[in-house]
Amino acid sequence: AEFLNGSLQSRSRHISSVGHIEPKPFNPSIAAILPQPQHQQHPVPGAVKEQRPTRTGVSIQELVQTASEKYELNKDFWGKYTDIPSMALASEKADILQIIENFALIHKKHVYLFQRLKNTVITSLDLWSAPDLAALCHAWAQLGFLHEDLCIAISSRVATTAHLCSAQELCWLLDAYASARCSVQSAIDALTRQTLVRLDEFTLSQLCLHASSFARLSAPHPLLFTSIADRLRAELPETAADASAAEAVPVQGVSS
Predict the structure, then answer these.
(1) Are 66 and 78 in contact (CB under 8 A)?
(2) For residue 181, is it left (φ>0), alpha (ψ between -120 and 50) or beta?
(3) Using 50, 70 and 90 to split pLDDT, how confident is the model at 199?
(4) Which of 33, 95, 131, 147 has its CA 20 to 30 A from that of 50?
């Protein structure tokens, strides 16, 4: 009994020496890391259910309602699909191009939809030619959805079917690679060769866009640039005359 009393007294003295322990303040940042408790909610009779955004993004109804205020819609196209997930299941080349081009017409990007269509394109590239890919890339470049992974994936098809492209389609493809800052030599070489073959079919604005694309890719092509300069001189004689006159004027302070 004496031993037990002594132990209790010793323990009591130890506790009193420690004193009162203040609890640590709660750090609110930890709450964001911890899993939140799940509370079951029971519907209230007569209450309107709140519409929450889904992972598929904006619905077709919202797109059509917003776009109709600014643009003339293709009613036949927008009436084909009930929702975005069904649209994302498109696998035919013509259907995919129609979807992308109609979104470009209303200037709307839909990441969920475009990502799934891009995956479909990449897994079925044998069905796509360079002209098809030019239209696809041009529309996605306008909508800010053109990425390096697509440019790399399509390079083989671009290189082998570039000869099927018109001047406009050659411009679109080279602009796509330049916009993505993606230089794949096989594709760029094929597009350059076809540009030289079809140079007379290019408009002046297309030639200027082409020159810009080469500059953005840091890939100057002396022969092509000389050919472009010759076209500009031939079609803009007054500009060429002004340039020649400017070259003939000596610069003040510089002796010949």
Answers:
(1) no
(2) left
(3) very high
(4) 33
